[in-house]
Amino acid sequence: MGAVSLELDVGNSALKWRLMSESGRLQGGRVASSPAALGLLLDELSLENLTDIKVASVGSVERDEPLMHILAASGVPVKLAVSQAFCRGVRNSYGDTSRMGVDRWLAMVAAFGVCGSACVVVDAGTALTIDIVDGGGMHQGGYIIPGVAMSARALAEHTGRVRFDGADKQSLAPGKDTESCVHHGKWLAQYGAVQAAITLAEATQGSLEVFVTGGDAQGLMVVAGEYARHWQYCEELVLDGLAPVLASC
Q1: So where's the catalytic machinery, residue-wise (predicted)?
Q2: Which residues are annotated as a binding site for K(+)?
Q3: What is the pLDDT of residue 46?
Q4: Which residues are catalytic?
Q5: Same domain, 220 and 127
Q6: Which domain holds residue 187?
């Protein structure tokens, strides 16, 4: 099999992982973003061929400490990605690059590496993030918005009479009961934000590529319908940026 790397994208809700060799992706998946789930994953995987573990995490130092302890105990060298000022043609717009979530940075580097042109990068997860990169690789800025689950939870926690349950309904149709109003409304907010961001980006950048990733990306594309026909769904976009960013650190 040769040298193998374990790549980890540690998000707020899920931990995405994959094994990579020189020939490409071997296997992967997602588990809960918790020390217990990570420990079980490492127990299930064969670590004897691992050359390193590459990690991107959006968590705080305090939250990540138990995870990093488990990784260190594996005996395999661990490499932690951070946001940079420049990588693979992409230039960060943040004055303090440490303030940018590394998942956003990796996704932008990966997306620009694919298209080499102006693009919008959408990560629909716990939070909805939207970032714009121009044709020269300059990050033009972005947006951070509560994701679908967070939006619904905010209504449940901060309103007295908006009560709902039941399965998620991926639709933009006006709701005719409180449950459908909430579920359709949260998707309308996501779709409306992405559509507005793309329209604003097109006004300054012209034609551009749209890359979509994250746990709710496919739901977003369902409600976007025909509008999303040219979007590129990249399930592992953050992981795709991990090796390039670490190689340039």
Answers
A1: 103 (proton acceptor)
A2: 123
A3: 81
A4: 103
A5: yes
A6: 116-237
